[in-house]
């Protein structure tokens, strides 16, 4: 069993490495298919930056050589200078932005998981009662709402009309709304997942046995049922991170949070190609690593699952 | 019991059944065997169950109404989505038409109304460039729906062909094809879309200038291209799984033994039997494509100006959120309604057509 698990982890790891490598390759060649190359478009950047870029990537050299240089740089976590923001290199921008975004995304993920588990269990315990119906109604409505709509509506109601929260992410308490708008969709999704798997588990024989033995209801719920119902939620952890990453692009733009998402969106608008390349690779690698972790955790948590 | 005597006698030494233990069926009993109703096909059965599902039917009606409105209302509407009402040839731009509140009128319109003319009201007002907002919302919904349908059709075609080939031939072909799917599946789709949308905007726009494709816009094209490149893998996996299990059936063996071609078997036996899964998955693909399009429009990679989409309308409204909040709420509400209806309809289809869930 253990050797099988090890083999699975190695396989998954290999696939992730291949994927990250593929993403770097795609990003590089796709961006270079822009006429004039990604670095020298429209108004040419300042002479110093042009020179630095030419030195860094050897733009006169053949494409394959440039690719290898870029690849080497990426492996050393060096994405080169930004072509629109003078004197800043992409790596520093990513690091600085990610500090803020990680806080935002981490808090959103934590809230989504914990509230989702609680609400989902409640809905399952009170199956077909009013509580269940209210929870299901709200979560169904929420799953159909893209993050930017949630964020803009929250901004409209709470900041503009009622003036309870600041509309700017830099002010104290300003991160509350971005976190809420990022966590609502995954929370609703986890609620639905938990509810259906909880209903499944609560119908099992061992739950009845535990109840018949006189185990406290709360203990049956948390120790016997929830532990077994939690596995589908773990598989969702990877996609959830992907959702939060893409969601943070718009949410940070709406609430003016100085995070990586806002940097990414403004680099798209400014056509800052090195920034777009660096950020895409960084975020993609982040998502892939999270997917990997959630897949492995899933197999570790539930030994019944067959190894493929 | 008189008919017992009609039965032939049993040879005491044979292992034959003793027919005296049986009775002939009476006419009444025979009548019970007659089929009273027409036999119901799988599809009809599913539709019947779908029709009983009130939520799904409501959503279907809502979607049909929205589809009819976006298809026909722009034709008869007195304003067009790109027409700036304050701009007339040879005259100065009439700024009174910009940023009208709902049911307000521009200066010249007010004069014409004083003269007894009837003028169609601007139900949702106008935007900052003096364009009628209601028709822009309707047109935006049309764009969103078109994107959703076309993307779903692209995914359907590629996914079904790829999945059925992989599933039917199995073995090394399957192994190779599925590795490719695994890799594509693990690419973060949204980031790849953004990347391609950025690049295609630069690469494609000079090439398609002047052709019919230019009207579609590079961003919409890039959404379609990305769906064709990346999004089909989910469908391919699903179809492959179905085909793998269905091809174990005896009738497939029978078809093969009388010399049916692989493509014939796939078309005649395997695909019709996996239709339910394909329908459900396609129905759920549409809202996801609409989601994607509105997201792209929102971060500034959407359809080309002046064409509106629900996402770009919401994005544009953000700058005027303090003065004109309804301009944000209206497109947001439309996106929500469309996506919710498709989601619930998809759920209803799954309940109706997925035999595993049959009660």
Structure explained in plain terms:
The complex is a heterodimer of chains A (308) and B (359). Chain A is mainly alpha-helical and 308 residues long. Helices cover 75% and strands 0% of the residues of chain A. Chain A is built from twelve helices and no strands. In chain A, helix 1 (2-32) packs across helix 3 (63-75). Chain A is flat and about 80 Å long. The longest helix of chain B has 37 residues, at 133-169. Helices cover 65% and strands 0% of the residues of chain B. Chain B contains 14 helices and no strands. Chain B is mostly helical and 359 residues long. Chain B has helices at 27-33, 42-52, 54-76, 107-114, 133-169, 171-185, 189-207, 212-216, 218-246, 250-257, 262-273, 275-298, 310-317, 326-353. The relative contact order of chain B is 0.12. In chain B, helix 5 (133-169) runs parallel beside helix 9 (218-246), helix 7 crosses helix 9 and helix 9 packs across helix 11 (262-273). The A-B interface holds A 15-16, 18-19, 22-23, 26-27, 30-31, 33-35, 41, 140-141, 143-146, 148-149, 152-153, 155-156, 160-161, 242, 245-246, 249-250, 253-254, 265, 268-269, 271, 276, 280, 283-284, 287-288, 291 and B 182-183, 186-188, 190-192, 194-196, 198-199, 202-203, 287, 291, 294-295, 298-301, 311, 314-315, 317-318, 321-322, 325, 328-329, 332, 335-336, 339-340, 343-344.
